[in-house]
Amino acid sequence: MNWINDALEFSIERTRANLEIVTGFPELTKSGAWEYARGGSGGWVGGHWVGLLWLAFAHTRDEMFERAAREWAARLAPRQHDTGTHDLGFLFELSHLLGVQITGDASLETLALVAARSLIRRFNSRGKFIRAWGALDAEQNRGRAIIDTLMNLDLLFWASRASGETQFAEIANAHARTALQFQVRADGSTSHAMDFNPDTGAFIAQGTHQGLSASSCWSRGQAWAVYGFAETYRNTRDEIFLAASRHCADYALQHAPADHVPFWDYASPLVPNDVRDSSAAAILASGLLILAEQDRANAERWHDAATTILQSLWENYSSRGTREPSILIHGTRSKPHGSMDHGLIYGDYYFGEALRKLATGK
Ligand code: GLY
Fold first, then answer.
1. Which of 67, 79, 317, 343 is deepest in the core (most CB within 10 A)?
2. CA 265 / ligand 1 centre spacing (Å)
3. Which residues are the active-site residues?
């Protein structure tokens, strides 16, 4: 299909142009310019930028992209010791393990293993969840876990295979089961957050941070769930995770608007006069392609749904003809925090990742 090649070429040319202009880890676009992840150390999005550089190298074999990916990955090195966030999977899978996959250079694995060791320090063994936010000794958010963490588990499953130590996979498995039990509702929708008593581990309630309410379904969180449960199934072969990914995917597809790109929250009363989240669509599409690989009986259905979403993103949400430096536009970082209608680096990354899968099967 010609549009896939066009979209890939456009994404690579945008990445090449961005490499010339960025002075930090790009996070979102506003009025035609990038805003950078705060603090200079990559925030939760540094891996997505490096991942785009690796994808560009994989497609073009232009050594300039490999050099840039290595340089930007090296800037994330101090984060391997960061015990103050759950985001280490986003950071080190895309900056380091993707590099191993594309170049075969196993030396990039070293930092990823250290990052996995930092990440498991956030596991609450009573509640069986990985804490999302806050320094290990901070009281605030001690009992809060979020759906996004499902995306950080693949790093832990990999760490068990790489090190031979089972603890990483056990923690990842335990967290995924907890998320399935408390965040996935009977209709296949999910809550953004789940709160526990951090001392006893008792579940308290569903909650939200970036969604409309505790009982609503934040569309990017739903996409994290589809993708994260499909990956967890790939790592565990436990059928409950395959069923969870399918269930969450069905909800997202059944509640999709006509152009297949979700509004920021499926429960928004303002729909259809509300903002979209193109990043949710890109993550969902890439997650559906993982599901298609794992769920062979329904592979065609998931693959077709992903292709339809990606084609709509390309036709209706690409930055062609605008002054935005991102690849996609109309992403919502967080409507409750007043941050919407941006290009988002993670929307761009998962769009590129999914296009690569469509084009090459990798
Ligand atoms: N992981 C943060 C977000 O999805 O906005």
1. 343
2. 14
3. 87, 148
Mean pLDDT confidence for 127-147: 98
Structural domain total, the chain = 1
Nearest atom in ligand 1 to 210's CA = 5
pTM for this predicted structure: 0.98
pLDDT tens profile 243-283: 999 999 999 999 999 999 999 999 999 999 999 999 999 99
Nearest protein Cα to ligand 1, atom 1? 148
Structure tokens at 284: 């969902």
Residues 6+ apart with CB under 8 A from 154: 89, 93, 172, 231, 232, 235
Which helix (H) or strand (E) is 26 found in, with range? strand 26-30
Angle between helices 219-236 and 278-294 (to 10 degrees): 20
Confidence of residue 362 (pLDDT cuts 50, 70, 90): confident
Would you place residue 331 in the very low, low, confident or very high pLDDT band (cuts 50, 70, 90)?
very high
Nearest atom of ligand 1 to the alpha carbon of 333? 5
Which residues form the pocket of ligand 1, taking CB atoms under 6 Å from any ligand atom?
A: 44, 148, 210, 220
The one-letter amino acid code at 174 reads A
The CATH number of whichever domain residue 339 belongs to comes to 1.50.10.10
Write the residue with the smallest CA distance to atom 5 of ligand 1: 333
Question: Hey, what are 121's tokens?
Answer: 């320090």
**pLDDT band at residue 348 under the 50/70/90 scheme:** very high
Q: Which pLDDT score is estimated for 1?
A: 76
Ligand 1 center to residue 37 CA distance, Å?
13
Pocket test for ligand 1, best of 91, 209, 210 (most atoms within 8 A of CB): 210
Residue having the nearest C-alpha atom to atom 2 of ligand 1 = 148
The region, left, alpha or beta by phi > 0 then psi within -120 to 50, assigned to residue 342 is: beta
Q: Which atom of ligand 1 is nearest to the CA of 334?
A: 5
Is the per-residue pLDDT at 222 higher than 90? yes
For residue 72, the CA-to-ligand 1 centroid distance in Å is 21
Q: Of the candidates 184, 186, 206, which has an alpha carbon nearest to the alpha carbon of residue 196?
A: 206
